[in-house]
Amino acid sequence: MHDLKWIRDHPAVFDAAMTDRGFEPAATRVIELDQRLRAAKTSLQEAQARRNEASKAIGAAKARGEDAAALIAEVSALKGRIQEDEEAERALAAELHETLSGLPNIPAPDVPVGPDESANEEVRRVGAPPEFGFAPKEHFEIGEGLGLMDFETAAKISGSRFVVLRGALARLERALAAFMLDVHTGEFGYTEISPPLLVRDAAAYGTGNLPKFADDLFRTSDGFWLIPTAEMPLTNLVRESIVAESELPLRFTAVTPCFRSEAGAAGKDTRGMIRQHQFTKVELVSVTTPEQSDAELERMVACAEEILKRLGLHYRVVVLSTGDMGFAARKTYDIEVWLPGQGRYREISSCSNCGDFQARRMNARYRPAGHKGTRFVHTFNGSGLAAGRTLIAVLENYQQADGSVAVPEPLRPYMGGLEAIGPAS
Fold first, then answer.
1. What local confidence, expressed as pLDDT, does residue 266 receive?
2. Can you give the residue ranges of every domain in the chain?
3. I need a surface site. Which of 57, 242, 393, 395 has the fewest CB within 10 A?
4. Peptide bond into 250 cis (omega under 30)
């Protein structure tokens, strides 16, 4: 959500930001609706005040034995005007809210301007791709060859874009999530949360998923939404609350199943686990003051990168362009891991600074020390990491010529000391 006063004061800047994000200029429309709404409120207040005055005058006139017919007629007429003004106020407020709800966050000044991923800018590369004495396979070839990754049975149960992991691969995914959580909570100061997987409209609206992206979500028959990521419940932990500045920053992490309809993904990544309706992800969420904002995003990216470094996986970091960022993001870094089987980088984490955009939608504020007033917090979210995609990266980067997969050393304690995953017996 946007600050109306800021839009009124900076209409050209706001329109330029919307254009950079691929949206039509909207300042004129927003300001017009705001003016009409304020005029309706003023008219309503004036009518209510006059009604109160006239009602008192009626009582006084009757007490003096005077004729109050004119005043009674005026009050009757004012009732109709008040009803009309109330209806106009509700309609204009709803229209303004709907208009603002459909507009994305304003990009930070240092975000590259461009229509899509082609304008993203690489920030750095870490590590080097592994070298093989054989043609590396893709993860689904490896998993199916081990007899531990089953798409056919999953399709019988649930349809396309699902998978059944068995034995050591199921344990490997669990090991990855546990390893990530231990690092983030034990070393980086995140508090582990076990959040609800079903949320109400208000929570989905707070993070910017509703109303614009309802088609990307799964909804139950009784009005709940399945979370597309733990960002949704974790960020809403501070909704409709005022936090003391001394409590900030707040940092939360959770591992959850995530559910996405993948609307518009027909024909994309139809083989394998890259794009699933259900997947496991470790989420990172931060809540800070505006002054901590830029540093907190860099810190979050570094936390996610550390997981890849310890797993010995080659990756790169890119900053997303205005046309490729998520709806609620002010600035986003994607971390893309190298997949030898595909011969390309694929996103494994996306870390975003949402500024006060989500906070305004959630009414999440903090009270600065020594001040009576409140300010909106800044919120952040990122993958720390997507466990399913990290599983893919481990399979492809640690594959061996005989079809087995070496277990990265940091994961071995979580795998009961297993050093390599061989075919199912």
1. 63
2. 4-101, 117-421
3. 242
4. no
